[in-house]
Amino acid sequence: MTNEYVLILDFGGQYNQLIARRVRECNVYCEVKPYNKIGIDEIKKLSPKGIIFTGGPQSVYGEDAPSVPKEIFELGIPVLGICYGSQLMAHVLGGKVETCKVSEYGKTETFYDKKCALFADAEIPESAISWMSHTDFISAVPEGFSVAAHTSNCPCSAMYNEEKKLYAVQFHPEVNHTQFGVKMLDSFLKDVCCCTGDWTMENYAEKSIKEIREKVGSGKVLLALSGGVDSSVLAALLSKAIGRQLTCIFVDHGFMRKNEGDEVEAAFKDWDINFVRVNAKEQFMGKLRGVSDPETKRKTIGEEFIRVFEAEAKKIGHVDFLAQGTIYPDVIESGAGDAAVIKSHHNVGGLPDHVDFKEIIEPLRMLFKDETRKLGQELGLSETLVWRQPFPGPGLAIRIIGEITDDKLEILQDADWIFREEIAKAGLDRSINQYFAVLTNNRSVGVMGDFRTYDYTLALRAVETTDFMTAEFSRIPYEVLEAASRRIVNEVKNINRVCYDITTKPPATIEWE
Ligand code: XMP
C-alpha cells in the first residue's frame, strides 16, 4: 500500500484503538505500534507523515515509565502527544511534570489559544468541553514551547512548538465527549502533517483486489465462511479478485439464529464462487450431549468445527492459500501487555492443523470493523449482512445455560427472533451494538389462563459499546421491553418469565457463558 502513513505509538492507554479509528475517519491511514517494539531506525524507514503518542497509565517519573529517545523529536516529523504522551514530550524535552493539586477527570471546560494550529479552525470556539483523565500535569513547558490551552485547575492543558511541529494535549481529543476533538485531530493531520487524506474504502478495494490477484496468481483459495461481517466481506472481496479460484466452506453447526443458515446460503447463492454448506447439527449435538460446563462447550465446538472443516477441505484436495477474516483489533498488540484470558474464544475460521495449504492470507488485517463494513458496502454486500451484529463462534450453544437439547434450541431461536423483531421495529437495531436472548436453566411458577405453569425464564441482553471490552447495558424504552416480553410469553411455548439483564461489563461479560 502506498497511502500516507501516520504512526501511533502506544504507551498502554485505554483509548489507543479509538485514536487510530479517529485518524482513519479523517481518511488518513495509521498503524498502532507498542512504543517499545519499534526503534528510531524503523521509524525513519517508515517515514510517517506524523507520529501520535497515546496516553498511558504511568507517571513519567515512575519506575519503568515508558519513554522515547529524544531523537524522535529531531526527525523533522510532526508529533502530537496525548495525555501521558503530552507529559512524556514535556519531560524528555526538558520541561517539568508535577502532580496536580486537583486531579482532573471527565468533562472539563477548556480555554484554547486560537493561534495554535490544533485550535485555529473557525469551527472551534475559544472555550469548549474536553475530556480529561489525569493526575500529573505539565507545570513548565520545554524551551521553545508555548502554552496553548488551560482550564480553571490546570495552567497547561496543551502546548506547542510551531517551528518544530511538536504539539501536545493533556485531554483526549479522540473521545466523543471532547467537543471538536476530531476537528483538532484533523487539523493536526491536514494542517501540520500536510496529509491530503487518501485513505478511502473505494481505493482500498481497488488496491487490495490488485494485490490479491498478484499474490494468488492461478492458485486455489479456501475460506471458512461464518456469515459474520468479517468473513462475508472477505468472501466478497476474494470473489471480485479471483472468482471461482475461491471455495467457501460454511459449516452450519446448528446453533445459528433462526433461519440464519439459510440466509447465509441465500446471500452467496449468486456470487461467482464455489460455495459448500455442511449441515453438521447432528454431529455437534452428539458431541455436546450431557455437557453443561461453558468452557467444555466452547472447546468441544471449536474442536469439532475444525474437524468438520478439515474433512470438507480434504474433498477439495490441495489448496494454495487459506484466507482468514482477521481484522485490525485482533492484530493490535497493546503496549500495556497481555490481558488475562476470560473465555476461550472460538472464531469460526480458526486454524485447522490438517489442511494442506501453502500460506495464509488475511486481506482485512489492517481494517477496523467500521471500515470492514464500509468495504462490504463498497463491494455490494446486502445491508443485512454488512450490519449484522456480532455473533459468537459457538453461537446459541453458549446462550443456552446448562445442557443443550433440541427443544431448548428451538425455544431460544423463537424467543431471540421476537426480541430482534421488536428492536428493529423500534428502530434501535443500529444504535444497540449487540442484543440477544439467553435461555436460563431456571424454571419458575406462573399462571396462564386458569392453569399453573412451571416453565423457563428467558433473559434479554442488550449492550452499547465501542470495543466490546467494556459495555453498558442499553437503556431500552420500557414499552419496547414490554412488547418483547408480552410476545415472547404468548408466542413461545415453555417460557413464562422474561428478565432484562442490567449489568455492565465488567463485572459481567456480554455473553452469559
Ligand atoms: P464477552 O462475553 O467476552 O464477549 O463479553 C465479547 C464479544 O465477543 C463475542 N464473543 C465471541 N466471538 N467467538 C467469537 O467470534 C467466540 O467464541 C466468542 N465469545 C464471545 C461476544 O458475542 C461479544 O460480542
Automatic annotation (TrEMBL):
Start and end residues of each GMPS ATP-PPase domain: 199-388
Positions annotated as active site in the UniProt record: C83 (nucleophile), H172, E174
Coiled coil start-end: none
Alphabetical UniProt keywords: ATP-binding, Glutamine amidotransferase, GMP biosynthesis, Ligase, Nucleotide-binding, Purine biosynthesis
One GO CC term, this protein: cytosol
Residue numbers binding ATP: S226, G227, G228, V229, D230, S231, S232
Entry GO MF terms: ATP binding; GMP synthase activity
Subunit structure and binding partners: Homodimer.
The protein, known as: GMP synthase [glutamine-hydrolyzing]
Species the sequence originates in: Ruminococcus albus
Annotated gene: guaA
